[in-house]
Amino acid sequence: VQLQASGGGLAQAGGSLTLSCAASGIIVRLITMYWYRRTPGKQRELIASIANSGATTYADSVKGRFTISRDGAKNTVSLEMNNLKPEDTGRYYCNTDSLLLRGFWGQGTQVTVSS
């Protein structure tokens, strides 16, 4: 199983970025996928999930601004981030249960939001 997060970069406050997670070895539409982030000085936190049913959940800190989705044809999971805030700065990771159980974290993708 491999997950490759991409799409991070530099954005201004109020701007938008879309992250993508390319998966191999798993079928994203059949399992629950997660986006986590680690912000400076904080533990890694779960910010969004999408279940095989399509049900989504969001952390309060991103609710209404971020949208998680998946593309079954491309086998990818995306995180659309709007109205970015400086406190969204951090490294973003996609993951799934099978990798979490093994303590695996990929390289993630860095998001930096300037005020």
Describe what you observe in this structure.
The protein is about 5% helix and about 50% strand. By secondary structure, it is mainly beta. A hairpin with a 4-residue loop joins strand 7 (about 65-70) and strand 8.
Radius of gyration: 13 Å
N-to-C series of helices and strands: EEEEEEEEEHE
Mean pLDDT: 96
Total DSSP helices: 1
**Head-to-tail CA distance between termini:** 37 Å
Shape: globular
Proportion in β-strands:
over 45%
Overview features:
mainly beta, six-stranded mixed sheet, four-stranded antiparallel sheet, about 120 residues, 1 helix, 10 strands, about 50% strand
Short description:
By secondary structure, the chain is mainly beta. It has one helix at residues 97-100, and strands spanning 2-6, 9-12, 17-24, 33-38, 44-50, 56-58, 66-71, 76-81, 90-96, 109-114.
In terms of topology, how is this protein built?
Blueprint: E1 2-6, E2 9-12, E3 17-24, E4 33-38, E5 44-50, E6 56-58, E7 66-71, E8 76-81, E9 90-96, H1 97-100, E10 109-114
